[in-house]
Amino acid sequence: QVQLVESGGGLVQAGGSLRLSCAASGIIFSISPMGWFRQAPGKQRELVAAITRGGSTNYADSVKGRFTISRDNAKNTMYLQMNSLKPEDTAVYYCKITKGVTSPVDYWGRGTQVTVSS
Question: Does residue 99 contact residue 32 with C-beta atoms inside 8 Å?
Fold first, then answer.
């Protein structure tokens, strides 16, 4: 059974930093693409950053230059380093992992709250 557990959220002042972690189990982590998403109150869930099994990354325009996604295959863990945080980054952050290629299935964590005060 695939399980994802996020951690590292919290309350931070604007301009501050946080590092989110997503620990995965029940899946061959090293070959699975992953991503971070976020959902603010009243808004749709949106992609923040994604990383392929080969380590290629892409980011939402709103976080480019401020956020860095990475993965440690030895620890089955993905990270999101968030710097220069802004109040508009406030949201629940979710990690997602995709299992399979021909019939891919997405698995989601429960989310971690990030609140940036002005």
Answer: yes
Nearest to 22 by CA among 40, 42, 2: 2
- Which tens digits make up the pLDDT trace of 5-47? 999 999 999 999 999 999 999 888 778 899 999 999 999 999 9
Strand order in the sheet with 3-7: 3-7, 18-25, 77-82, 67-72
Q: Letter for the amino acid at 14?
A: A
Residue 18 has phi, psi (to 5 degrees) of: -145, 155
**Residue 64 contacts residue 8 (beta carbons within 8 Å):** no
Over residues 72-100, the mean pLDDT reads: 96
Q: What is the DSSP string of 7-20?
A: E--EEEETT--EEE
